[in-house]
Specification:
11 helices; about 325 residues; 2 domains; binds manganese (II) ion; about 40% helix; binds adenosine monophosphate; alpha/beta; Diaminopimelate Epimerase, Chain A, domain 1; inorganic pyrophosphatase (n-terminal core)
């Protein structure tokens, strides 16, 4: 099925002239890397390309060539619309309604296949990996700008090549992207381990409130924490990755209070535990090892409801893995 989708996508990319490319709101490195990777490859081959996103490009990704071309509005016509790294249209923000999507390229197991042509590869570590594997097959050059964008996507979704879904192929692909001009140490520094002073200060609040129950570890970041630290984003500043460093943590959860009355929840799990199922119960989604959801309500109440379901799920997955 994916081979057919791959062929159809190659034909569409070659034959059409005007493209609309979009990725998910609250963009991570893979979202921006995939958008820029495909967008710049099409632009450099002479196509007209609109790259849009219903959010500003986060500061840490603005060093990438072409980042300034990403707009928050659609201007004019296009022939082919493409979503990248996006599991369902509700993750497109204001662009989620009223647009017919031709092509959907993604690696989320929870992707519901909302486009005419869907290339969904859950075993890929990043959407950027799918693009890096296929761009030259589809007949496009991987320039330095494209290589940097795609390697950034792969690096961020694998947290610097260290998630459990890493394969040797991905390292070979990364080497090819370096040969095409991608600067691994710079991308690694800027997009994997460097954080702003304010981000690390906000971690302090989150860490001070950390709790655990058996293999479940969690914390929350409130609006007040964000204000006190002077952190400009609405995300957890990758705090979740600190919790996954705890050796007995089977599932880590971070709750981030949002100024609009919502609460962003992030889950991470070790192999054998699938948190995408819990996230789906709360209207979110993601991967077995990393999932998220956005809920409306009071943070303490949501926290209790989510932790209860998460704890039950952890017990169930552990029972199943003992029995299998
Ligand atoms: P995060 O915790 O935001 O880093 O997200 C972890 C994974 O879950 C990512 O692959 C996201 O694409 C996915 N994800 C996060 N939030 C949502 C959501 N509200 N709906 C569907 N998938 C999500
Ligand atoms: Mn993403
Ligand atoms: Mn991704």
């Amino acid at each position: 099925m994916n081979d057919h989708a791959r062929t159809l996508i190659g034909q569409a990319l070659q034959q059409a002239e005007r493209f609309l490319l979009i990725t998910h709101i609250r963009p991570d490195g893979d979202a921006i890397g995939s958008l820029l990777g495909l967008g710049m490859a099409l632009l450099e081959s002479g196509k007209a390309v609109q790259m849009v996103l219903d959010d500003p490009v986060p500061l840490q990704f603005r060093h990438l060539e072409g980042a300034e071309l990403i707009k928050r509005a659609i201007q004019g016509d296009f022939d082919v619309s493409i979503t990248l790294d996006c599991s369902d249209v509700s993750r497109l923000g204001k662009f989620g309604e009223g647009i017919e999507w031709h092509i959907n390229i993604d690696h989320h197991i929870t992707n519901d296949g909302f486009a005419k042509i869907n290339l969904i590869e859950p075993e890929a570590v990043a959407t950027a990996e799918i693009l890096a594997t296929n761009l030259d097959i589809w007949g496009f050059q991987v320039s330095k700008a494209v290589a940097n964008a795609l390697l950034m996507g792969i690096l961020t979704d694998t947290i610097g090549f260290r998630t459990y879904n890493m394969r040797s192929d991905v390292l070979r692909l990364a080497a090819k992207l370096m040969d095409a001009g991608a600067n691994l140490p710079v991308l690694y520094a800027r997009n994997v381990y460097q954080k702003s002073f304010e981000a690390v200060k906000m971690w302090g609040s989150g860490l001070s409130r950390m709790q655990r129950r058996d293999g479940l570890v969690w914390t929350m970041i409130t609006n007040q924490d964000r204000l006190m630290a002077g952190y400009p984003g609405k995300d957890d500043a990758d705090m979740i990755n600190l919790l996954t460093a705890i050796e007995d943590a089977k599932i880590s959860v971070v709750f981030v209070e949002q100024p609009n009355g919502k609460v962003k929840v992030s889950w991470r799990a070790v192999p054998g535990v699938d948190v995408s199922q819990v996230a789906s119960q709360f209207g979110g989604g993601g991967h077995p090892a990393a999932a998220g959801a956005e809920l409306t309500g009071e943070i303490q109440e949501l926290c209790e409801a989510v932790l209860e379901k998460t704890y039950l799920h952890l017990r169930e997955d552990q029972r199943n893995s003992k029995n299998s």
